[in-house]
């Protein structure tokens, strides 16, 4: 019952993170100081991604990369912030799910160890009982050898003779 609720909660959290990311995007472009920081972030991201693309395609990387205009930089930065937020929420949800799963597996492992321990104890008890029965059987065999084979069955004849003596008297 808990697993479907957790999965549903994770899905709801991911779904709700998208409008929150949109709100962050909207608000990020409106504040002047924050706007300047995100423009700088977008310009650095643009330089890095352009340099990486040029290296991948084998073009020269020592050329000057033209900066984005301010509006494109703001848009790129708020898109990046929104994606980072959604990715972070998904990452946290994933970490939570992995931890929950590992706790569940740890509980199952503890139960398995407990069951194995109880089986081991039962096995030891049965081994002791078998050993006890072996000793009893050895004692009976020793007694039977002491009387001889007819001596083992002598108690029937002794009882029958006692019955005959009782009838004769």
TrEMBL record:
GO BP term (any one): regulation of lipid metabolic process
GO CC terms in record: mitochondrion
UniProt superkingdom: Eukaryota
One Pfam short name: OPA3
Sections of the chain in a coiled coil: 116-143
Keywords from the UniProt entry: Coiled coil
Keyword Mitochondrion: no
Family: Belongs to the OPA3 family.
PANTHER family: OPTIC ATROPHY 3 PROTEIN, OPTIC ATROPHY 3 PROTEIN OPA3
Protein name stated in the entry: OPA3-like protein
């Amino acid at each position: 019952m808990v697993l479907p609720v957790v999965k549903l909660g994770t899905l709801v959290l991911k779904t709700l993170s998208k409008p929150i990311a949109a709100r962050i995007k909207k608000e990020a472009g409106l504040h002047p100081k924050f706007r300047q920081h995100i423009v700088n972030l977008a310009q650095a991201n643009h330089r890095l991604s352009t340099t990486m693309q040029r290296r991948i395609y084998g073009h020269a990387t020592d050329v000057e990369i033209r900066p984005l205009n301010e509006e494109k930089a703001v848009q790129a930065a708020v898109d990046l912030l929104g994606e980072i937020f959604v990715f972070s929420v998904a990452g946290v949800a994933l970490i939570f799910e992995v931890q929950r799963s590992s706790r569940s597996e740890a509980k199952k492992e503890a139960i398995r160890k407990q069951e194995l321990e109880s089986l081991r104890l039962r096995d030891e008890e049965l081994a002791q009982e078998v050993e006890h029965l072996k000793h009893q059987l050895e004692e009976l065999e020793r007694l039977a050898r002491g009387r001889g084979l007819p001596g083992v069955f002598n108690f029937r004849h002794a009882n029958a003779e006692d019955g005959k003596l009782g009838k004769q008297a």
